[in-house]
Design goal:
5% of the residues lie in helices and 55% in strands. The longest helix has 14 residues. The strands form nine sheets. The protein has a 22-stranded antiparallel beta barrel. The chain has a five-stranded mixed β-sheet with strand order 3-9-10-7-8. Strands 4-5-6 form a three-stranded antiparallel β-sheet, with no helix packed on it. The chain has one domain: Maltoporin, Chain A (Beta Barrel), CATH 2.40.170. By secondary structure, it is mostly beta strands. It has five helices and 44 strands.
């Protein structure tokens, strides 16, 4: 289904939902009650480090509350793209570790040592490295997605925006819930939370989530792939001895070991192997029997993968959020966090029974961060917030590539280091490893000054000092006998020789904005802002020292203007934003498809402009409709990749149009219970996965649909629900990389139709 037809179908689905209000009324047998007020329910957000109504925040932000997250069965960070305009995600790394793109700003790299330009925060604690993400999308109060450079209050690697995950806080009450579910692919899931308190000063909340599902990729020669298996838990303790002080301690842990995502190769004319197997079978027929592989007779969801280990991710985290209010209008806040994690991603990168290419990524990370700030809002005219931030990150990273390990390239009847030495990189295992340390220090301030009762000036600055060291880097080669004998980087007779590199960046970023409220319920805003992302180290250097690069810092300068308003006695709430970006030195990984050499480089200049429109409508007390439209125009103004001038091309992962619609309709509200129907749809135009803009590395326009129906019996603390995602069973790609030098295009694909039922008990 194309973009236009998908949009029409989505509109039709939402439009049909309120078609039978008379029927819903007729089935109500209870005594008449005072009618509910049909108004948009305001969400309170902390996008600017203070509690504000969403409609009062003068920036482009989407907030998804608990009910909407549940209605759309959001269980993975990638699911957020169905509800947030101009947000995309690619899944080269696998589940729970998406690479976000927001307004065309993305991390065009799949290396596990990197931290992307769309910063992720758990309860205000910055989470940078992939290994630290873990299982996270459970027992959330809301999710906030901020678009645009966050160069003042956030700053740390947030050139393009920020994703804030806010967990439910402990409350001084005895409450809880338990949800269990079952779905296709033998999906079993359970989640819950138990909240209690000890007197009137200490409250405790324990939450957990666990999911297990078989793989939805049929593997003819091994276990099915793309399964789910993970468990996460979070303990939150609130201590509030007085109204002027509170402290929340959160301890979390998660473990996941699903089958790694399958690679669905788009095979070239010579097959996977690009003719290598045929050449060596003819040259040395006695010791080479395999042929190039063509995926003959297999459908899109079937592979013949010979290498199927489990992906493993273990993470632990602790955070302490403290707020002290020593005087009226003064709040001192401290956010401390410590996280560690391990991520192992072993992958049959060719997706075939041949041993053409496998890659095993390994990442071990630790991070400490401290944010200390003081907020003053005692004056209605002048308010400010000042703070200091420090973070330290330690990473050990290793990547193992194996090429054509099933070839005897010298015809001696043995598979060992002699084959590798004769035909590097064929018949070789090449493994690099390094240690990485980054330190970030920042001082920041943000203030508002009310010029008149209707006009407010906002301004902020952030001074950042970043240092990084990449040490003990080496890349060594071995044959099929696992004996590493050849030092490729730094290139030395000593196989244990290493090299290092470092960077030191300083930056001054910030924002200047105006906010005007001409009438009650309407706000117009305009912002000039600058965002910064620190330098990054190459992780995919294997064969030559020139691959070992340090990408320069990214800088994004933005102009943004918008309006937030309400109509029809708050039955319709609308937010519209337009923006223009000058994007300098976007970091991207340059993969030479012919020889597999990779460098982390910069695109010197790009520009992006576009707009978002979001609305929430409540035409009746029983019906709520959500909608969003994102428009993008991106162009590389200056840049080279693989010796090709890519000026004029679109940025990667930046579709021109995306539209989302969702609705919740309380179909029946009777004496015997309540029935609610939810439907959602997202339609996206064509997007490219790299800067070359080749159709072979793109995803054509597509539309995806989901639905949920729930039943809550009267006077019973339970909810029964059935859900379905990707109703049309649409096949689509989530990433594509040109590796035609080994005969194919590397591809990850999205989930087919999934569905299930859940039961929730609340007390």
């Amino acid at each position: 289904m194309g973009f236009r037809s998908g949009l029409l179908a989505a509109t039709a689905i939402i439009g049909l939902m309120p078609a039978m209000p008379a029927m819903a009324q007729a089935q109500t047998t209870t005594e008449p009650e005072a009618p509910e007020v049909a108004q948009v329910t305001e969400i309170v957000v902390t996008a600017q480090k203070r509690s504000e109504r969403l409609s009062d925040v003068p920036v482009s932000v989407t907030a998804l509350g608990e009910q909407r997250l549940a209605a759309q069965h959001v269980t993975d960070l990638s699911d957020l793209t169905t509800a947030v305009p101009n947000l995309r995600a690619i899944s080269t790394v696998g589940e729970d570790t998406p690479i976000f793109s927001l307004r065309g700003v993305s991390m065009s790299d799949y290396s596990l040592n990197q931290s992307g330009p769309i910063a992720t925060y758990y309860d205000e604690a910055y989470i940078g490295n992939f290994a630290l993400f873990g299982v996270s999308m459970f027992d959330l109060e809301r999710v906030e997605v901020l678009r645009g450079p966050q160069g003042t209050l956030y700053g740390r690697n947030s050139t393009g925006g920020a994703v804030n995950l806010i967990a439910k806080k402990p409350a001084f009450e005895n409450t809880g819930f338990l949800t269990v579910g079952y779905g296709n692919y033998d999906r079993k899931e359970a989640s819950g939370a138990f909240n209690t308190h000890f007197g009137d000063q200490v409250a405790v909340r324990l939450a957990f989530s666990g999911t297990h599902a078989d793989g939805w990729i049929n593997n003819l020669i091994g276990p099915d792939l793309n399964g789910t298996r993970g468990l996460g838990g979070r303990l939150s303790v609130l201590y509030q001895p007085t109204d002027d002080f509170d402290a929340t301690l959160r301890l979390s842990a998660s473990y996941a070991d699903p089958r790694n995502p399958a690679v669905i190769a788009d095979v070239g004319p010579l097959g996977i192997g690009a003719g290598a197997y045929e050449f060596f079978r003819q040259t040395f027929p006695a010791s080479n029997t395999k042929t190039d592989y063509f995926r003959t007779g297999l459908n899109n969801y079937t592979v013949e993968s010979d290498y199927t280990p489990r992906r493993k991710n273990r993470s632990q985290g602790a955070s302490l959020n403290m707020n002290w209010r020593p005087a009226e209008g003064v709040t001192i806040t401290s956010v401390s966090s410590a996280n560690k994690g391990v991520l192992l991603v072993p992958q049959d990168t060719d997706g075939s029974p041949n041993e053409t290419l496998t890659i095993t990524y390994y990442d071990r990370a630790k991070q400490f961060a401290q944010d200390l700030r003081l907020a003053y809002d005692a004056s209605d005219r002048f308010k400010f917030l000042v703070g200091a931030y420090v973070s330290r990150e330690w990473v050990y990273n290793s990547t193992l590539q194996t090429f054509y390990m099933d070839l005897d390239t010298n015809g001696d009847g043995l598979r060992n280091g002699a084959d590798c030495l004769a035909t590097i990189p064929l018949a070789c295992q090449v493994q690099n490893s390094f240690e990485q340390k980054k330190t970030s220090l920042a001082l920041y301030g943000d203030a508002t000054y009310k010029v008149t009762s209707d006009l407010t000036l906002r301004f902020g600055l952030r001074a950042t000092d970043d240092k990084g060291d990449q040490t003990n880097f080496r890349s060594v080669a071995a044959g099929a006998d696992d004996v590493f004998f050849l030092n490729l980087i730094p290139g030395s007779p000593n196989p244990n020789a290493t090299t290092s590199q470092s960077f030191h960046d300083t930056d001054l970023s910030g924002k200047l904005g105006l906010e005007w409220r001409p009438v009650a319920g309407t706000m117009l805003f305009a912002n000039l802002s600058r965002g910064y992302r620190g330098s990054s180290f190459a992780a995919q250097a294997f064969y030559d020292s020139f691959e070992l690069t340090v990408a320069k810092p990214e800088v994004l300068e933005a102009v943004e203007g918008g309006v937030k308003t309400q109509f029809f006695d708050r039955r319709l709430q609308v937010s519209a934003t337009a923006f223009y970006y000058s994007y300098k030195n976007q970091q991207f990984i340059n993969v030479d498809s012919a020889n597999a050499l990779q460098q982390l480089l910069n695109l010197p200049k790009s520009r992006v402009y576009g707009a978002e429109l979001e609305f929430t409508a409540v035409p009746t007390a029983d019906l709520t409709i959500y909608g969003g439209v994102g428009l993008l125009s991106s162009r590389i103004r200056e840049g080279m990749a693989n010796g090709v001038d890519v000026s004029g091309n679109q940025l990667a992962n930046a579709p021109k149009v995306n539209v989302s619609l969702a609705a919740d309709w309380r179909v029946i509200d009777a004496s015997w219970g309540r029935v609610t129907l939810h439907a959602d749809a997202v339609a996206t135009s064509k997007q490219y996965f790299d800067v070359f803009n080749n159709d072979a590395q793109s995803q054509s326009s597509l539309a995806l649909f989901g639905a949920r129906v729930s039943y809550v019996p009267a006077n019973a603390p339970i909810e029964l629900a059935a859900w379905v995602k990707n109703i049309g069973d649409r096949f689509y790609y989530t990433s594509r990389i040109d590796v035609s030098g080994v005969g194919y295009t590397y591809q990850n694909i999205g989930e087919p139709r999934t569905y299930g039922v859940t039961a929730t008990y609340r007390y």
